[in-house]
Specification:
CATH superfamily of the largest domain: Cysteine Rich Protein
CATH architecture of the largest domain: Ribbon
GO molecular function: zinc ion binding
Number of domains: 2
Strand content: 5-15%
Largest sheet: 3 strands, antiparallel
Structural class: mainly alpha
Number of strands: 7
Distance between the termini: 66 Å
Pfam family, one: PET
Helix content: 25-40%
Radius of gyration: 27 Å
Order of helices and strands: HHHHHHHHHEEEEEEEH
InterPro entries: PET_domain, Pk/Esn/Tes, Znf_LIM
Keywords: LIM domain, Metal-binding, Repeat, Zinc
Protein name: Prickle-like protein 3
CATH class of the largest domain: Mainly Beta
CATH topology of the largest domain: Cysteine Rich Protein
Strand order of the largest sheet: 1-6-7
Shape: globular
């Protein structure tokens, strides 16, 4: 008997559908394989999925620092760190915005601020609406992770280690953490980072925890580890080196690569 053409088409359709399973079918097959291979594998896959999304936006999956709204509470670093503000030295937010900037170095009169920013790469000058403003916002999140600043932002610190966390924060704030300010150099001095001179009349950066005689070039005031400009001149000192808060903390405590929180327990898993 001649072959039924409808049966042939049906068979071809079955072959095609089996060769190109739907997305839902793929997921079903993977779940079935995970359950059959190991009773724990499906749990591990789910945990890996959750950990990946801890550092990404739940809506669009892009890095969290890409969103302006994420930084609304980070505009003023001194308020975020709980440090009082002297309006005469640090300037008001309205004054900074009137200069077309998201941030200006404390300690300088307005006519010296432009001199300070000429020392920096132009793509890192925090002018409103530019890539420099985006760079600052990103560094605020990276260098000053909120889970390093207050226990309220931590989700994975065991209650048994809350005291250790608070002791660490208190010691850091008293011993290591501070905000530098800019000033006009009056006496020739050598920059600790590059070794070249900071000359009278030039603008330098003074970090009080290093004394009042040492000045850095504005472009040299960087973290010893990541080599990024210390955001809003916020720094930590450890063994006479400058660090951003993130990398200072990591000199003393391990950090979880999944949730990005410091680890205060004695046991943790390290990927080799």
């Amino acid at each position: 008997m001649p072959e039924d053409p409808r049966a042939t088409l049906l068979d071809r359709g079955r072959k095609i559908s089996s060769s190109f399973p739907s997305r839902e079918r793929n997921f079903a097959v993977r779940r079935r394989e995970a359950r059959s291979n190991s009773p724990h594998r499906s749990v591990l896959l789910l945990d890996a999925y959750r950990l990946y999304h801890l550092k990404t936006c739940n809506s669009c999956k892009c890095p969290r620092e890409s969103h302006d709204v994420f930084h609304e509470e980070w505009v003023n670093v001194r308020e975020r760190l709980g440090i009082g503000q002297d309006q005469d030295k640090w300037g008001s937010r309205d004054r900074v915005i009137s200069q077309g900037l998201a941030w200006a170095p404390p300690g300088l009169p307005p006519y010296k601020v432009d001199q300070y920013f000429k020392c920096l790469p132009q793509d890192k000058v925090p002018k409103l609406g530019t890539s420099g403003e985006k760079y600052r916002e990103k560094q605020l999140m990276i260098q000053l992770p909120k889970q390093d600043l207050a226990l309220a932002y931590c989700r994975h610190v065991d209650p048994a280690h809350h005291t250790s966390y608070e002791d660490f924060i208190t010691a850091r704030n008293e011993i290591a953490l501070d905000i530098a300010y800019a000033k006009e150099c009056t006496t020739k001095t050598d920059c600790p980072e590059c070794g070249r001179s900071v000359n009278p009349g030039e603008v330098g950066v003074l970090a009080p925890k290093f004394g009042d005689k040492i000045l850095w070039h504005p472009s040299c005031f960087i973290c010893s580890h990541c080599k990024q400009l210390l955001v809003d001149l916020t720094y930590c000192v450890h063994d006479d080196y400058l660090y951003c808060e993130r990398h200072y903390a990591e000199q003393l405590k391990p950090r979880c690569s999944a949730c990005d929180e410091l680890i205060f327990s004695g046991e943790y898993t390290k990927a080799m």
